Structures are given as C-alpha cells and as structure tokens.
C-alpha cells in the first residue's frame, strides 16, 4: 500500500509550554550550620536556594536577582534582620519568613511591624519551616477571581496582588493584602482572631498577637482615622468585623 508523503504545508502542533522554574529562596543566617540545614531541607523540597551570611550580602544578592522569598535570621552581625527586612520591603513586596532565637514577644511583633510575613522561633523543626515557606508562597500566587472583591471604596485584586482605596494603590504587605481581601469577601461578619489566623494565615495554632498587629497595620492604611476605625471594627469579646455599610451610609 502506497503511503502518502507528509504534507510540508501542514503546521506542526505548537510546543508545550516549559514548566515554571521552582521558586528561589534566599536564606540569610550567619550560623553556617543553621544555614546549611535550612538550605538542605528547602533544596530537598524542590526550591532553588541561595545563601547569604550577613545583611549586606543579602541585600546585594536580592538587588542582583530578586528572590521569591527570603528566610531571614533576626540576629545578624552588623546590620540586624529587622533593618534588612525594612530595606527589602522598601524595594518591593518580597515575602519574608523571619527566624528568631529570642523568646520576647515584642521582638516577634517588631518583625511583623517591619513587614515580615511569618516567623519561626529557634530551635525549630526544619520541616515546619518548609511548611511555613510553602504556606507563604501559596498565598502569593494569583488566585482565580472573576471579579475582585470591593466595598467602601476598597478593592483587592488577587490576580494582580493589587489593592486600591478610591483608585489609589495601597502599599500592603502580602499578609495585609490577604487580610483585606478576606474582609472584603466577608463583609458584616465578625471573626475571632483564631478564625482569622486559620483562614488568612492557614495556621491552626500560633501567637494571636500576629493577627492583632496586622489588623492595626491594615487600619493605618485603609481607615480615614486609624485612631477611630470605622471599617474594621473591634467586636469586644469576639474579634473583628469589616463593616462597609458604615462608609456607604455616610
């Protein structure tokens, strides 16, 4: 049976899109043993890992090629982790998971205040750290939403990771954005801090002051008068409620 020669005019199917490269993680710790263990676990979890031993090195590496996430030790020689976090956040919304050996709650809150998205207290389980890194990265990926949630002049677009107030873009950290988007999707409902930690952070346990700090920071960016918040209201004995009806009734 005679076989027809291939038709040269028939176009070949387009090549498949190459798989996305794994996220790049910058590990910043002056303790080589800790850095090696953390980097090893992250590497085995499928991440591309780069290491820096101090703050100046970390900032230089981040400037040369922005990482997808930074694992940052609080106690660094010279420039401490808080200052490194401030400078990283000033350059753009890079997620930061902070490592701290301190047991003082004020230090953990200060880390959140300067823009850290999560923290792990030493000594820690490397596997727990990997789970925290994966959780933060998961929340940075665009989520399908046919219409960005909006109310009271506020809009949060998950696909663009962009929030606006009356059309003006808000400078929110990743967690602040997640918290605002959650409130916008659930107007008028009161949530406890435990519920917010579970729904927004994905944690079943943790320091509830994390929620308090982020609500205070978010109020400072969305309220006309943060000292007398009207949109994000405290429900005594329960937690917080986003009430856009207050603004819309004005």
From TrEMBL:
The keyword Transcription regulation applies. Residues 146-244 bind DNA. Residues 146-244 form the OmpR/PhoB-type domain. Residues 1-24 have a biased composition (Pro residues). The keyword Phosphoprotein applies. Residues 24-137 form the Response regulatory domain. The modification 4-aspartylphosphate is found at residue 73. Pfam families: Response_reg (PF00072), Trans_reg_C (PF00486). Transmembrane segments: none annotated. Keywords: DNA-binding, Phosphoprotein, Transcription, Transcription regulation. Residues 1-27, 140-159 are annotated as: Disordered. InterPro entries: CheY-like_superfamily (IPR011006), OmpR/PhoB-type_DNA-bd (IPR001867), Sig_transdc_resp-reg_C-effctor (IPR016032), Sig_transdc_resp-reg_receiver (IPR001789), WalR-like (IPR039420), WH-like_DNA-bd_sf (IPR036388). Gene3D superfamilies: 3.40.50.2300, 6.10.250.690, Winged helix-like DNA-binding domain superfamily/Winged helix DNA-binding domain (1.10.10.10). This is Response regulator transcription factor. It comes from Streptomyces salinarius.
């Amino acid at each position: 049976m005679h076989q027809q020669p291939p038709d040269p005019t028939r176009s070949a199917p387009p090549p498949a899109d190459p798989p996305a490269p794994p996220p790049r993680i910058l590990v910043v710790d002056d303790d080589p043993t800790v850095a090696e263990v953390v980097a090893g676990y992250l590497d085995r979890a499928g991440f591309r890992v780069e290491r820096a031993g101090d703050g100046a090195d970390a900032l230089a590496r981040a400037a040369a090629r922005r990482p997808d996430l930074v694992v940052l030790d609080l106690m660094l020689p010279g420039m401490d982790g808080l200052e490194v976090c401030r400078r990283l956040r000033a350059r753009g919304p890079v997620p930061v998971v902070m490592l701290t050996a301190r047991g003082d709650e004020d230090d953990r809150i200060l880390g959140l205040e300067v823009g850290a998205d999560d923290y792990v207290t030493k000594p820690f389980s490397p596997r727990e750290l990997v789970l925290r890194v994966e959780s933060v990265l998961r929340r940075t990926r665009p989520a399908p939403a046919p219409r960005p949630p909006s109310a009271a002049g506020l809009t949060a677009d998950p696909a663009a990771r962009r929030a606006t107030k009356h059309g003006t873009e808000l400078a929110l950290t990743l967690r602040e954005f997640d918290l605002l988007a959650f409130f916008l999707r659930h107007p008028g409902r009161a949530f406890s801090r435990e519920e917010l930690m579970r729904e927004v952070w994905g944690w079943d346990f943790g320091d509830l002051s994390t929620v308090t700090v982020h609500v205070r920071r978010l109020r400072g960016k969305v309220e006309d008068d943060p000292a007398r918040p009207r949109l994000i209201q405290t429900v005594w004995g329960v937690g917080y409620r986003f009430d856009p009806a207050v603004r819309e009734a004005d």
